[in-house]
Write a structure and sequence with these properties.
five-stranded antiparallel beta sheet; 11 strands; about 60% helix
Length: about 750
């Protein structure tokens, strides 16, 4: 591995024009594809294997033309103080609004509040339901404008009017904080390298990689039904790993220059050593993201694969474009320790003017590692107890999917949600749809009535609409309104109670009872994700564990890496619960409404954080193993690893945190939550687990940390991540035949 990458790095350095041309061409091609691609259509949210999805599919089959996946809107009216919606003037305004809404070209139907029993008991609130032929993402702008114009005319007449539903669904915005995150990354790179040129290389290559990845996703969005969130998450992860991977190679290149090597040789060795770590770190991230497919939720699978593709591009760019750009930069990228005079630095090994001549002072990483190896048990206990305390809120984790109730109070969707709760009760925003399949029943009408009566007798039910059969008379829908809000435990219990009652009804009448609707779908998604979490952990952690055994040629080091990851991810989940569920620091994070944590958050965080955690593990511990393989004692190897890697790992972690934190400003609650969760997880994993717990454990284990059974040592392939074979490779010559040798390899 190291030898191949060494040759690849030298080839890219020499053939820099060709390499740069390839990547620019790919970026142009992806950009043209994105610009010419049709707009993304509906991002279907299907959940195979769930009862809610089965009922939804049955509705499409038995109620053709009903536009089951069409957009909906609820136009909610509230009368002025002292008036009611049944007053002649207010009623005339509503009826005029309904007539205007019905004229739309994409409108399937509009329900009049006065004929559809959609006026509250006190008469102050009413709503009109609008059904469209196409999904919210496919609605034309003219249709949305007509909806808002009709509402505005009713407002001008004196009514309070708000619009709920998904008809006004907007593409999420990330806000200015994303740019701030990139700016912070730039500042950290300048401080780390002391050079604008060296700092600019990781940023440039990361932006090119993200540009190719996101443009490709945009080009394929319509064909693959990719949602807007997919590209945002790919951008988030691609930026973070792209900057980090380039940072490690540029840092190693400067270290090789400091050893006195020529620039082409230094580029080859940087790619051969740090590049090997990049490859394996990237593989762990890709495994974690692609592994999301085991959950069998198409949307989550697409998000994972798209993000994994962006990570793969980041790896390839780091291995090829970075050495090419280093060739262009020439002497403007200085050796490590030879930073510009403007930053007040001196060359490596030169004493500062105010210090006596002699050995230069050890850097902060060396001093910290020396402290840890002297007090390993105390550091270990402090780190574990601290992360354990941060993880405590995770015991109160409640899962759900965001609805209009989680929107900011400034949005019309949220205000419509609140008005409906005020006028019709909290459960009205999350009605349950019960589908009765009586095709196998001898008396379908009796089965429909039986289901209706059984549901009316259940606790937690406010209203049950009469059965609405299809034209064939073999299937009916029954709308049930709970007395609790959609995301509550009481509503979940009601769904299970209806399903339990359905089993008895099927045994009695032969009719199958299914519960669907957005609320039931959310409940089924949460259950499916909970059931998939353990198999996913086993698959992803198991594969990565085997990969790390090959990298480190050790059993205990990969085991320690996996256990440390579990600590950091549990602590991060605890922080997410504290902010988004309990409301701690919610104002600082821009969280206007607390509630259940998004159902996808735990499993998505496990996948992404595991991959990123292994990044730091590989980058930091490979330097320790490199020192150990070259003859240093275990504790000294830990100190040496920190001497060369701590500064860079710290910079990488700060950059990744800044990039993730930049997405906290998103208008999409899911993106906001993931941005915060990943940022805090990187903090816990990089600074507590990898920088404190890892060296403490390695110091306690000593030589045992690098133990590997002899039979396994013989069976494992030698990937040479430490670059031990590069000395021989360099001595074999680097003449004109090297390009052909690379092809043969």
């Amino acid at each position: 591995m190291a030898t191949f990458l060494y040759k690849l790095g030298r080839l890219a350095f020499r053939r820099r024009h060709f390499v740069a041309l390839i990547w620019v061409a790919l970026l142009t091609l992806a950009g043209v594809g994105a610009a010419s691609a049709p707009p993304a259509g509906n991002s279907s949210f299907s959940i195979p294997g769930t009862e809610a999805q089965k009922a939804f599919d049955l509705l499409e089959q038995r109620f053709p033309g009903a536009s089951a996946d069409g957009a909906t809107a609820r136009v909610v009216f509230k009368a002025p103080a002292g008036e009611t919606m049944t007053d002649a003037g207010n009623k005339a305004t509503v009826e005029k609004t309904v007539d205007e809404l019905a004229d739309g070209s994409e409108v399937a139907s509009v329900a009049d509040p006065y004929t559809g029993n959609a006026v509250s008991e006190d008469g102050t609130i009413a709503y009109a339901s609008v059904k469209y032929d196409v999904s919210g993402m496919e609605l034309e702008e003219s249709t949305k404008d007509a909806l808002e114009d009709a509402a505005q005319q009713a407002r001008d007449a004196g009514l309070t009017v708000e619009i709920g539903g998904d008809a006004l669904q907007a593409v999420p915005e990330t806000g200015a904080t994303e740019v701030i995150g990139i700016a912070v990354a730039a500042v950290v790179l300048v401080i780390t390298f002391g050079s604008l040129v060296a700092a600019g290389l990781p940023l440039l290559t990361a932006l090119i990689g993200v540009g190719i990845g996101v443009s490709s996703i945009t080009a394929l969005a319509s064909a693959l039904e990719l949602g807007s969130t997919t590209s945002i998450l790919a951008m988030m992860i691609g930026l973070a790993v792209g900057i980090d991977y380039a940072l490690f190679i540029v840092s190693r290149y400067r270290a090789e220059l400091a050893e006195g090597r020529e620039r082409e040789e230094a580029a080859g060795r940087a790619v051969g050593t740090a590049g090997s770590a990049v490859v394996f770190a990237g593989l762990t991230v890709v495994i974690a993201l692609v592994g999301l497919a085991v959950v069998n939720i198409p949307m989550l699978t697409k998000m994972g694969i798209a993000a994994a593709g962006t990570v793969a591009i980041a790896v390839l760019i780091a291995l090829t474009m970075i050495p090419a750009l280093l060739g262009y930069a020439g002497r403007r990228v200085k050796p490590a320790g030879a930073k510009g005079k403007r930053l007040g630095r001196s060359r490596k090994g030169e004493p500062k003017p105010d210090r006596p001549a002699g050995q230069p002072k050890a850097n902060l990483g060396t001093r910290w590692a020396s402290f840890v190896v002297r007090r390993p048990l105390a550091v270990l206990l402090l780190g574990v107890i601290g992360l354990g305390a941060a993880a405590v809120p995770a015991a109160s984790l409640e899962l759900g999917l965001p609805d209009d109730g989680s929107q900011p109070t400034s949005t019309t969707q949220r205000r419509a949600y609140d008005l409906l709760s005020e006028g019709f009760g909290p459960g009205f925003n999350g009605p349950l749809m019960v589908v009765v399949d009586a095709k196998g029943s001898d008396a379908p009408k009796d089965a429909f009535t039986d289901v209706e009566q059984r549901i009316k007798g259940l606790d937690g039910v406010v209203a049950v609409a009469p059965p609405a059969p299809n034209k064939g008379g073999d299937t009916a829908t029954i709308t049930v309104v709970p007395d609790s809000k959609p995301s509550s435990v009481q509503t979940e219990d009601l769904v299970h109670a209806i399903r339990d009652a359905g089993g008895d009804i099927e045994a009695k009448t032969g009719a199958e009872t299914l519960v669907t609707g957005a609320t039931a779908m959310n409940i089924d998604v949460s259950q499916k994700l909970n059931d998939a979490l353990v198999p996913y952990l086993v698959l992803v952690v198991g594969l990565a564990f085997l990969l790390l055994i090959v990298v480190f040629r050790s059993i205990l080091v990969p085991l320690k890496a996996a256990l440390g990851f579990l600590l950091s991810v549990m602590a991060a989940l605890g922080a997410v619960v504290a902010v988004f569920q309990w409301g701690w620091l919610s104002g600082l994070m821009g969280v206007e409404e607390t509630g259940p944590v998004m159902s996808m958050m735990p499993i998505f965080m496990v996948g992404v954080v595991f991959g990123l955690a292994m990044d730091y593990e590989v980058f930091l511990v490979t330097r320790m193993r490199e020192a150990y393989v070259h003859g240093e004692k275990p504790n000294q190897a830990v100190v040496t690893g920190f001497k060369h890697g701590a500064r860079v790992v710290t910079a990488a972690a700060v950059i990744m945190m800044a990039v993730f934190a930049g997405f906290i400003g998103s208008s999409e609650s899911m993106v906001k939550m993931i941005g915060f969760g990943l940022a805090i997880a990187v903090f816990f994993d990089a600074f507590v687990v990898r920088m404190a717990i890892v060296p403490a454990v390695l110091a306690l284990l000593g030589k045992k940390a690098w133990w590997l059974p002899k039979w396994l040592d013989r069976a494992l392939p030698n990937v040479d991540v430490e670059g031990e074979g590069l000395r021989t490779a360099a001595e074999r010559g680097t003449g004109p035949d090297e390009d052909r040798e690379l092809v043969r390899t």
